[in-house]
Amino acid sequence: MGLLHTVNKSPFESNTFDTCLGYALDGSTVLLIEDGVYAATIGTRASEKIQQKIQSNNDVSFAVLGPDLQARGLENKLADGIKVVDYEGFVNLVAEHDSVQSWL
Amino acid sequence: MAIKKFMYTNRKAPYGTVYALESLEVVLIGAAFDQDVSLAFIGDGVYQLTKGQTTEAIGQKNFSPVYAALGDYDVNKIYIEKESLEERGLSLDDLQHLVWEDEDEDWAEKDSIRLVSRSELADVMTEQEIILSF
Questions:
Q1: Average pLDDT over residues A50-75
Q2: Which of A81, B27, B47, B98 is most open to solvent, judged by the fewest CB atoms within 10 Å of its CB?
Q3: Which residues of A sit within 8 Å Cβ distance of B?
């Protein structure tokens, strides 16, 4: 499989998320962690971009780290099409992909 | 001691960086000096006040319940920028309901949160004597 991309910055504070989307090719997964989880919440421009990406290329997957979403009180704001993973799931994603790009 | 108008501006999301917690600690320390305090939540700062924060799994202290105690320290002017909230797909219902008790009106419970537009908040900011940015 392709790359696992992790994004840990808020999409409102930095362009990391946008840059990452441009690099997410077939077989890759984008995992939102820490302040990156805000991109996974409904009613934001970032989550609209995720929906567009899913529609234009269903070979790119999106995931969000559940503990970081819970910490921020936003579990009930999760947008469609984004899988929630725990720390074990994070490890599995790392193992399943060829390599990891940790966008900072 | 002369009373001055203090504003703390909060623009960072909680937990990802230490700004939100540091700001809250400074506000609580400052509250001991009986100043005229306002808090402004702008941009990602509005995320500091979301309901239901549960931090056990990330191994960090959940400091969100402390905001509810601010009213007891006479910190009761809490400005939320409307544009920031809307851009994030949030409404006031997603945030904690913060109140204070008015000593001059038989301890009547009043809302601490004031939802204001960017231009309204700019006016309030202009009235301040000391602005601390987090």
A1: 95
A2: A81
A3: 8-10, 12-13, 34-35, 38, 41-45, 47, 66-68, 70-77, 86-87
